[in-house]
Design brief:
Largest sheet: 11 strands, parallel
Structural class: mainly beta
Number of helices: 3
Order of helices and strands: EHEEEEEEEEHEEEEEEEEEEEEEEEEEH
Shape: globular
Radius of gyration: 19 Å
Number of strands: 26
Helix content: under 10%
Oligomer: single chain
């Protein structure tokens, strides 16, 4: 195993980018340890078996950048969503620990989508991290097979093979407002805090009964039995009025999102999930809950296409993400 240090005090590489370039062509397992500090870098990990680990609490080691979808590129085109990331994970067996990854672009109405983490690969582990942005904070690749709007997938994986992988997020805090956890991966969120933010400026606030956001927008492939699974998570808010946030909506019609033993705050809309005005998705999506609690967890008021799953189903989904499954 190769161990590398990145430090603001001269104890190794000064920039994370330099450390990644030094190992990009290798195949051995690499651990890159980051001393506390703010690293203003846009990063890409494009190989397997890399761990990027902060050496303090997540808030002490911050990786931040401010790209966003509505920004103009040198050729006059827009950056668009999938080039807006702070960090790209493009490989298998990758781990992030004890980090904050923050896209600083704001406000949402002016900048549009602004990805903090673009995660595409198998056996990805994100542990004890903070992911912060507003619209589209976390993208869990792969991309769907084709875009709804031609040209909207422009970015690092636009023409890549669509490989479905497993991703695990443990003890993380994920913050955003609109579709801020989205994509096609089979992803387990365990003991995470999912924070819905009010990403509007004071002048742009939604009406009293308006909808401020959606937590998830899954694009689970048709033949995948599992998409997003949240276990023992807390769904909280920053300045979101009661009943102003949906748990999710289907980016594609076979979206699957399940909540198990989760605490739901008062900001969650009584219907739970929205159909994105895709009535045909009522027969194909897999939105469900098991033994959730809190002011936003009234199962009797859920939309008709949201179901209560069984204990057997819940256990099967959790086991699916165990090593060796």
């Amino acid at each position: 195993m190769l161990r590398i240090t990145v430090s603001k005090t001269g104890k190794g590489f000064e920039r994370i980018t330099e450390a990644l370039l030094a190992v990009q062509n290798g195949t051995e397992e690499v651990v890159i340890e980051l001393e506390p500090g703010i690293y203003q870098e846009k990063l890409e990990i494009r190989r397997n078996h890399v761990t990027l680990r902060g050496m303090g609490a997540p808030e002490e080691t911050v990786i931040e950048f401010g790209d966003y979808a509505k920004a103009s590129m040198p050729d006059g085109t827009l950056r668009q969503t999938f080039r807006s990331y702070v960090m790209l994970l493009d490989g298998d067996h990758l781990t992030l620990e004890n980090l904050t990854i923050r896209n600083t672009a704001f406000p949402r109405k002016e900048v549009g989508q602004a990805i903090a983490l673009y995660a595409d690969g198998d056996d990805l582990l994100i542990r004890n991290c903070r992911l912060e942005s507003y619209q589209d904070t976390l993208f869990t690749g792969p991309l769907p097979p084709t875009p709804m709007t031609p040209g909207s997938f422009v970015g690092p994986k636009e023409f890549a093979e669509r490989r479905l992988g497993k991703q695990r997020y443990e003890n993380c805090v994920i913050c955003g407002d609109v579709d801020f956890i989205f994509g096609s991966a089979q992803a387990l969120f365990s003991r995470c805090e999912i924070v819905s933010r009010n990403g509007l400026t004071e002048a742009d606030q939604a009406p009293e009964k308006g909808i401020l956001g959606y937590v998830t927008a899954a694009s689970t492939p048709k033949d995948s039995p599992i998409g997003y699974v949240f276990v023992d998570c807390r769904f909280t808010s920053e300045n979101c009025p009661p009943e102003s946030v949906y748990l999710g909506r289907p980016w594609r019609n076979f979206a699957k999102t399940i909540l198990i033993h989760c605490e739901l705050g008062a900001h969650i809309h009584p219907e739970g999930f929205h159909d994105w005005n895709k009535k045909e998705s009522h027969e194909t999506t897999g939105f469900g809950e098991f033994q959730c609690y809190g002011p936003g967890a009234d199962a009797s008021r859920r939309a008709p296409f949201v179901r209560s799953i069984t204990a057997e189903e819940a256990n099967m989904m959790i086991k699916f993400f165990s090593k060796g499954e």
